[in-house]
Each structure stands twice: as C-alpha cells, then as structure tokens.
Amino acid sequence: MMVFVPTMDDMLHNLSVCQKEFISVCVREPRLLKDELWQTHVDYEICIQTNSMCFRKKTSYVRRCYSEFVWLRHCLEQNALIMELPKLPPWNPFFSLKNTEQVTQRMKGFQEFLESVLHAPFLLSDSRLHLFLQSDLSVTKMARCALGKTRYTVAEAIQRSSSGCISRLMDQATCDSDCESNSSSGLGLSMDTEVRGSPVSFLEF
Question: For every residue of the chain, which 3-state class applies, written as one string?
Fold first, then answer.
C-alpha cells in the first residue's frame, strides 16, 4: 500500500487555506426603543466574526439605528474615491416593525451594505468604520474619537465596549427621520428615530 507523504508545497497550501482571512457580518434582532418623551426608534444588532488582523475584536456585537448607517456611509464616501458605495435601504416615512417584509428588507439592505464595505480593503483603514462596528460610542463621540479629540483612543474605545447587546444613551443630534404615526395612542410616535431609553417591544420572525 502506498503511503501519501505531503510535500512542503502541500503543507504550505493547507496552512494558507486554514489561515485564510474571513469577515462575517450579520444584521439581526430589530428592537424598538422609547425615550422619556415617548419618541421611539428602531435599532439593530450587528454581529461581527472574523480572524482578520484589521479588527481589534474577533467577535463583537453592537446595536445601530438607521441614522447611524447614514452617518457611516457619508464618512466612507470621503475615502471611497475609486469606488461607488452601495446604497442604504431607502428612507420610509411609514416604516413599522409590524410590517415583517419592511423589516426584513431593511436588515437585508444593511447587511449587503456592510458586506460590500468590508470587502473593500482600503475602507478597512477607516477608524470610523471600526468604531461603528465594534464600539458602543454615539455618532458624535465616534467622530471625535477618530479625530483624536477624546481621552481614549480608537483601540481603547473598542476594547471597553460591551461584548453583548448594548443599551446606551444616544446623542439627540443623531436622530433618524423615518417616522410613523401611532393612531392608537394619538401621540404620533416616531418608529425610526434615534432616542435614549429601554426596549419596549421586540419583533421575532
């Protein structure tokens, strides 16, 4: 019986396959939040799993809302001179968590946007992208941190962020503009605006 003895080239090839870099992103678990003024917004969990040396954490979970995705895309456009960035899911004044199709399409759009961005090596050097994906900082704080105007570095902000689902106080300046009137309450609650607060409902599908 012949015994196969791998050559050095075989071993190097196998090693390279085993060590091939990957970046996996998943957008999931939409959540409705409410602040003290009864304004509401929807955020989504972003899960990153990677072995890439570009990332400080190999596994991370953060929550982001529509307006934060808009901010990120605007930031990346400044560096994407040779690349046309994918579009975000369209703004919808009648967006509602009760509409499963709307929610599914929005999460799909967010995920496709992030996947495209993460496959562009020159965008991976943007510290704002890493703060967006792996820190719990607000838009204002991410911008200041990326400019070196905070007492903590980008690496420290990422390292100190929570490892699970994040509940954080958010800046009023990062409010979403998507909204929906809630006729049952008569308060005209916004369904997709940035707020501070605790979850009041959760959609499962």
Answer: CCCCCCCHHHHHHHHHHHCCCCEEEEEEEEEEEECCCCCEEEEEEEEEEECCCCCCCCEEEEEEEHHHHHHHHHHHHCCCCCCCCCCCCCCCCCCCCCCHHHHHHHHHHHHHHHHHHHCCHHHHHCHHHHHHHHCCCCHHHHHHHHCCCCCCCHHHHHHHCCCCCCCCCCCHHHCCCECCCCCCCCCCCCCECCCCCEEEEECCC
What is the C-alpha to C-alpha distance for residues 168 and 63, in angstroms, rounded to an integer?
Answer: 9
Predicted model pTM: 0.71
Q: What is each CA distance from 94 to 2, 13, 118, 135, 192, in whole angstroms?
A: 69, 53, 30, 30, 9
Between vectors from CA 145 to CA 142 and to CA 147, what angle results, nearest 5°?
110
**In this structure, are strands 23-34 and 59-65 parallel, antiparallel, or unpaired?**
unpaired
Residues 17-42: tens digit of each pLDDT: 456 889 999 999 999 988 777 778 89
Cα 92 from Cα 35, distance rounded (Å)? 21
Query: Strands of 40-50's sheet, edge to edge?
Result: 59-65, 40-50, 23-34, 198-202
Q: Looking up tokens 């994040």, which residue turns up?
A: 166
